[in-house]
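Async update (no meeting this week)

Hi team, since we skipped the sync, here's where things stand on the single-chain job. The sequence we agreed to prioritize is pasted below, unchanged from the tracker. I ran it this morning and attached the output directly underneath so nobody has to dig for it. Comments welcome in thread, and please keep replies under the output.
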Amino acid sequence: MAILKLTLEQARRFLARKQGLLGKPRFSGKTGVLEYVKQAGCIQFDPVDVCGKNAEIVLQSRVAGFDKAHLSSLLYKERRLVDYFDKNLAIWAVEDWPFFERIRQRYRLALRGHESVEPVLESVRHLLCERGPLCSKDIELHDKVDWYWSTTRLARATLETLYFRGEAVVHHKKNTVKYYALAGDCLPKAVLEAADPHVEELDFLAWRVRRRIGAVGLLWNRASDAWLFIDGLKASQREAVFTKLLADAAIMPLMVDGLKAALYCLTEDVPLLEASLVERGWQPRVELLAPLDGFLWDRKLLKALFDFDYTWEIYTPAERRRYSQYTLPVFQSAGFIGRAEIMADRKQGRLRVMHYWPENGLSPKDEERAVLIDCFDRFRRFHGLAELDLPAGF
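Output:
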């Protein structure tokens, strides 16, 4: 197979186009949310809300006219999307439910704290049937259980067991509190009863790897955070998966100037890749990206292609942080131009840009400053806040 060769600029331009971050937005409104989620496979979920939750920040950077209510409606009213495991906790299209049967089955076979949970499962199922949707505070099970993240109440562990096994889904949320209902009361019967499409484990792993390549745009056959939560993907299995995907013509290899290892894109993305080799004159556009944005999943690849070294420092001890605990990358056209620490002060109705660090270390010139202010102001309007505060001296 002939290997296509790209310059660094061409690779960057392709990724920006694939991600919907170059030129006019390709996605719009509630329909655009669905279209982007299906292209990405999933959006990683995180409940931290300093200036919007991760999934919301991802969507506002791609989907013109995105409103937080769009995502909530698609998840908890229309049931077109579901939150479950993929790239850790994630949001994905409900029609993908059958593909994750293997994960649900693993939780049915082995689960931490099952000795405490199993005796009360049936009673909690009955409560959900009779009274659902419920949160853990609605259930009088106060014993403590050794659970995945920490010791927790038996009520929570039992609800999450049903959720992990696919018997329950998140019905809705109030702030960060999850209310669960039986899956049969929320999702289509045809989806719930559909058979696992993959007979062999290799087929399942190949589907998941292909999905991650499609989410980022380009990935390599190396250990990577982009493969997180794909159980069983050791080096030998990953090699078998890439061999299969190449044999099935599902992916295509390419080389980028300055990189020793081959990168891979989806075969279906080749027309977009070829167009990216020659197209010019894209309208300048600046976007704030989420800390767990799919574009950023492989930090080493990000460094190799864009010379951008990014770490989400929320879990980094304060004395070791280079920037701040919640810093958003600032992306322009086909490169990273800076980072911003932003806080949505909802009580005061203000979006506060606490700090801006230009990637070149130089204060932005008037034209660049105007574009950045427009980006920050769009982010303010996205949050429905009245005022924008810029850092001193900006």
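Quick observations from my side:
The first helix runs from residue 8 to 18.
The two ends are 51 Å apart (CA to CA).
Reply here if anything looks off.
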